[in-house]
Amino acid sequence: MLLLSQIYIYPIKSLGGISLQNAKLTDRGLQYDRRWMLTDGNGLLITQREYPRLALLQPEIVEDKIEITNRETGELIQIELNPVFSSENKKMQVTVWDDTMEAFTVGQEVSNWFSKFLNFTVHLVYMPDESHRKVDSRYAITGTEINSFSDAYPFLIIGQSSLDDLNARLEVQLPMNRFRPNFVFTNGEAFEEDHWKNFKIGNLSFVGVKPCDRCVMTTIDQEKGISSGKEPLKTLAKYRNFGNKVLFGQNVIGMSLGMVAVGDEIEVLSRSKI
What's the confidence (pLDDT) of residue 18? Predict the structure, then answer.
C-alpha cells in the first residue's frame, strides 16, 4: 500500500520548508505554499540558484504569523500569515521565469530585513487571490489551472524509494530537502512516480503531468546554505537523463479541494510513459 509519509510547504519561495502533518489544498497548490517571494528592484525572482544563503532562512508558522529565523545569527522577523491588503497598499509587477503578474509588497521594514541579509535591495511580495498565474498550457488539464510562485506546477511528489535508490549510488547520502517536494510517499518502487497519471491521495484527485527536470539548486546544502559541489546532478545524469534533462520527481496538478494528511493512502488509477 502506497502511503503519504511527508508533506512540505515553502511559504516564501527559495527559503526553507515547513513539515506538516496535514495540509489544505487550494486552487493553486497547498495553502500558504510559495505565496510569498523575494524580488530584486525590477521585480525579478530571487532564488537559491544565485543566492544559496537563502537556505539559512527558516520559516515557521507561529499562531497567525510566519516567523522567519536567520539560523546563522538567530535574528528573526514576523509577517502576517493571512495578510489583508487594500488599494492603498503598493503593488508591483513581478516575474517568475516567463510569467509576469501583480503582487503586493509586504512592507518596507520586512524588505529591509531581507535586504540586510543579502546585502542588496530586495522586496518581499505576496501573491493575492486575484493574481491568476496559469499553468503551462502544454500540460494543463482544463486550461484553467493556476499556480503560486512555484517554478511551474502546484505540486511535486517524490517516492522515498527514489531517494533511497539515488543514495545507494552516492558516497554521501542526501536528505529529501535537496529536492523540495510537497509530497513524499513510501512503499513504492524507485521512480514509479515517473509514470503516474491519475491518482488519489485519500479521497482527493491529482494528475501527474510531467517529470521534474532538476537544476543546480539540488546541489545546495540546505543546512549550510552553500553549494556542495556537483552532486547529486552528476550521478543522476548517469541514469536519469532523458532528452538531456535530469529527472527526479513528478510535477502534479490537483483536481480537488480539501485536506490531505500524513498516512493517507495513495491509489494510482492510471499510468503513462515518460
Answer: 98
Contact 174, 162 (CB under 8 A): no
What per-residue confidence (pLDDT) applies to 273? 80
CA distances (Å), origin 264, targets 19, 52, 185, 236, 254: 16, 33, 9, 29, 16
Same domain, 146 and 262: yes
Exposure pattern of 37-58 as b/e (b: 16+ CB <10 Å)?
bbbeeebebbbbeebbbbbbbb
Decide the pairing of beta strands 198-201 and 265-268. Answer: antiparallel
105, 132, 159 — which closes off a domain?
Answer: 132
Write down which residue in 132, 149, 170 finishes a domain: 132
Is residue 146 classed as helix, strand or coil in its secondary structure? strand
CATH number of the domain encompassing residue 176: 2.40.33.20
Residues near 124 by Cβ (< 8 Å), separated by ≥ 6?
12, 36, 37, 38, 79, 105, 106, 107, 110, 111, 114
Distance CA 22, CA 196 (A): 22
User: Residues 75, 10: one domain?
Assistant: no
CA distance 124 to 36: 7
> Residue 211 is part of which domain span?
2-29+135-268
- pLDDT tens-place string over residues 102-131: 999 999 999 999 999 999 999 999 999 999
What gap in Å lies between CA 134 and CA 114, rounded to an integer?
28
Percent of all residues in the chain with a pLDDT value above 70, rounded to a whole number: 100
The SS3 of residue 216 is helix
- Clarify whether residues 247 and 213 are in a common domain: yes
Cβ neighbour number for residue 270 with a 10 Å cutoff: 11
CB 220 within 8 A of CB 226: yes
